[in-house]
Design goal:
Strand content: under 5%
Oligomer: single chain
Largest sheet: 2 strands, antiparallel
Helix content: 40-55%
Order of helices and strands: HHHHHHHHHHHHEEHHHHHHHEEHH
Number of helices: 21
Structural class: mainly alpha
Strand order of the largest sheet: 1-2
């Protein structure tokens, strides 16, 4: 074993052993931080978190990644309202003016026919923020958001008189449904819907309620604990969701599965404990992103695939709850489909020898002409979506489609060896590119010599940019806005590196 592989395996082994620690690690959220500042500001004051918000603002006045435009409206609206509430300095006034200019120029962001990558709850959250913005005197036109507002009205009718329960998708966005903020919503962790924004809204609505005193104390403590996992160390700067224990566990192990590392002898001690714990958590109704949140098809499919490959007793029972015929959903009643959830379900189904022909047709119908898959609702990187679909389709009768994907992956690799959707390559997206090529190569798709050259260049770039303690990385995952699940992203990076080092000479890859 080379010194490089030894270092990477040690890093990965530590990561696996710490899965679920502190409720999972997840980066900070613009939207939730702004809502916490509005409704339940920290005892230390609002200035540090407000300054942090201003530092995250983009040069065009908005917040969020310009390459994932639909995920920018909600955080920008929330940040603008928070800035208006606490506007004290010239910097605050300048940031607010730029935010309003951005929001007034979004005519081309929301098309008449909405795509599948609408962020979680945006159809309800954005309208509620627009109402609040108008109430406090911020002039923001509704015309650019007509299609989103229409979707929100459709969603509201579908929800009807539903009663919100703890640990459900509705409780996660309850801040946008003001009439439903009531007693009985605080869950095991002290949160409302595992959401800092929803929890802050509940605290605001129950302020002065004597019978809620102890529960309110738990909710305030939840916000403090949630802030601690972001790595920012600023009171009031919180993540978009927390805890994420089962999401972190199932997806980290799935990343290892894609890198063919579940069988690595150095990892078996830590993995055995994870298998035992995950098996106990997986119920006939599926697996949620924590033990106290409703099950979803994505975590369920990942867990089933991992346990099946690991040789653990497991069935497909929990996954069938999310079967919609030709595709699978993360949650029942979703209005936008997800190719990545379907692809992961197909991967799990194929491991059991099930017929997935209808699902394959669905996935192929969403392939772009250039060979990639884009526009997924849970991750804004086409490299992530493409990797997941490759994992689902490989070993099926779809060779021609994947050969097109292979060619596009080679075309999109940057001269420095990286991949990325932003100005510069990113380690996370380069990991997706590496794993994609490795899976295709294993199935005999592509030119082996060209693949080896591409992977050697990618390995060199990844090793040069290997930063095990750096958490300031771009977020590509989508919930209410973009976020980075730290251990999951790191697991993909380490899995890709270890996978490629088995294919190219690590020392020559490093020296370039």
């Amino acid at each position: 074993m080379t010194h490089i592989a030894e270092v990477l395996l040690t890093d990965l082994g530590s990561l696996v052993a710490e899965l679920g620690k502190d409720g999972g690690l997840i980066g900070p959220s613009i939207y939730d931080t702004a809502q916490v500042l509005r409704w339940a500001p920290p005892h230390e004051g609002t200035r540090p978190a407000l300054d942090w918000l201003c530092m995250q603002q983009r040069s065009d006045g908005g917040w969020g990644d310009p390459n994932i435009p639909l995920a920018r409206t909600v955080p920008t609206l929330a940040a603008a309202i928070a800035l208006h509430l606490y506007c004290e300095t010239a910097r605050d006034r300048s940031a607010l003016a730029a935010a309003l200019a951005f929001l007034r120029s979004e005519e081309r962001t929301w098309p008449d026919k909405l795509p599948n990558d609408v962020p979680v709850g945006a159809e309800l959250i954005a309208p509620s923020l627009l109402v609040e913005a108008h109430r406090v005197g911020l002039e923001i036109p509704e015309t650019p958001y007509a299609s989103l507002l229409a979707l929100g009205q459709r969603r509201s009718k579908m929800m009807g008189a539903i009663r919100v329960q703890p640990g459900t998708t509705v409780s996660h966005i309850v801040e946008a449904i003001s009439d439903e903020i009531r007693s009985g919503l605080v869950d095991f962790y002290g949160s409302v819907g595992h959401s800092p924004a929803a929890t802050a809204a509940w605290l605001h609505k129950t302020e002065g309620s004597t019978e809620e005193h102890q529960v309110r104390a738990r909710a305030m403590e939840y916000l403090t604990q949630a802030a601690a996992v972001t790595g920012v160390d600023i009171p009031g700067v919180v993540p978009t969701a927390w805890p994420i224990t089962r999401f972190e566990q199932s997806f980290v192990l799935y990343a290892l599965l894609l890198g063919d590392l579940l069988v690595h002898p150095r990892l078996q001690g830590a993995l055995r404990e994870q298998y035992k714990d995950l098996s106990a958590a997986l119920h006939p109704t599926g697996l949620g992103f924590s033990d106290h949140f409703m099950a979803d098809g994505d975590d369920t499919a990942a867990a089933i695939a991992v346990l099946r490959v690991a040789g653990q007793p497991v069935s497909l029972e929990g996954l069938e709850v999310f079967n919609n015929g030709d595709h699978y959903s993360a949650y029942r009643g979703e209005l936008q489909v997800s190719v990545t959830v379907t692809a992961r379900a197909v991967h799990a189904l194929r491991l059991f020898g099930r017929d997935v022909s209808r699902n394959e047709e669905f996935l192929l119908s969403h392939q772009d002409p250039d060979g990639a898959w884009r526009g997924d609702k849970w991750n804004g990187s086409w490299l992530y979506a493409t990797l997941q679909v490759i994992a689902g389709l490989r070993r099926g009768p779809v060779r021609q489609a994947l050969e097109k994907t292979y060619g596009f992956l080679l075309e999109q690799q940057r001269p420095d060896g990286s991949w990325g959707t932003q100005r510069n390559g990113s380690t996370e997206e380069t990991a997706y590119g590496i794993l994609s090529l490795r899976l295709l190569e294993t199935d005999g798709i592509g030119d082996t010599a060209k693949t080896r050259v591409a992977l050697r260049r990618a390995a060199h770039w990844m090793l040069v940019h290997y930063q095990p303690f750096c958490r300031e990385q771009p977020p590509f995952w989508i919930a209410k806005e973009t976020y980075r699940p730290e251990r999951i992203a790191r697991a993909f990076e380490l899995s890709a590196l270890l996978s490629v080092l088995n294919f190219v000479d690590p020392e020559s890859a490093f020296i370039g």
